[in-house]
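dude i think i finally got it to work??
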Amino acid sequence: MKEANSVLSSYSTTVFEVMSRLALEHDAINLGQGFPDEDGPEDLRRVAAEALIAGPNQYPPMMGLPVLRQAVASHDKRFYGLNLDWQTEVMVTSGATEALADCLLGLIEPGDEVIVLEPYYDCYLPLIKRAGGIPKVVRMSPPDWKLPLEELEDAFTQDTKLIMINSPMNPVGKVFSWDELEALAEMCLRYDVFAVCDEVYEHLVFGGQKHYPLLTLPGMRDRTVRIGSAGKSFALTGWKVGYICAAPEVLAPIAKAHQFNTFTTAPHLQKAVAEGLAKDRAYFDGLIKELQGKRDYLSKELAAMGFKVLPCEGTFFVTVDFSGLYRGTDEAFCRHITTEAKVAAVPISVFYEMEGPTQMARFCFSKKMSVLEEAVRRLKGLFS
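look at this
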């Protein structure tokens, strides 16, 4: 039998699935995979349910329902001052991962170089390589994950076509500062490259910090793709509704990839997400307050056990250095706490191309407080 595709066949099952299976096998609390354990706002779920019954349930427009595309444009105007033409600059996708794939398939040619900041979300490199791109990885280092400007400058060449930016950043919770974004924008302009910005955690920024889309910086309007997700903003990760904003000439080839990929997204979910994006700022402020409280609780309790807790400026995740408590690798540590304490986490090394930190793990705090309290109790039983 002929061999399957060599790029995708070379990857093992995603660590999130592996750890979730292990957590299920051992009846463990799953603080590994990044999803809330409560469904999102009931009013949005009711909109989706009623729209499902009322219909229509046939193919919606390939670019997305007008009501959702208009809502995305209005949202970005309200929060970031962006003036987007919803008809030519907004497209709906079946989740942010599809959006990322569409961007790479639509914007790069085989042999083009794509800069990726490390640690990175696990789908980035497989998607780049499958699209024929050549990843150029620039490593960021703990504990502050500061953008290494000299190393980044060295990564740009005449063959660089695109840079991928994730802010707020999964897995480490970094939020890029305005100064860092200015430096990124300057390099993008100087080397004439596209910027694909994964901003799915845009509304999950803590400590009074602010999320700045790269799309808003001078000169970046015509070369930047902004990706958002209803899954993170409304705790509805299973809906897989994402959206892309970009200038018409940039969005057009991405839309061609979308056309031959998923083509469209469930219409009843699109209608509900449109309602969500129109929510008052109080909803988003409340979401931040709730998650920041959970971050603070889990961070404090882990630190009291002897973990070195790294700063978390956004996202669902807190990263810890466990070297003072456990001498094995991060993968061994995560298996250890899953089987012995019945609490699952994710090893940080899986977010690196080559060998990365081997004694760090990521815990997800977007859970009920009672679940976090039980997880803390179990971990204390193992490490206290």
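Residues 103 and 156 are 19 Å apart (CA to CA).
im so relieved honestly
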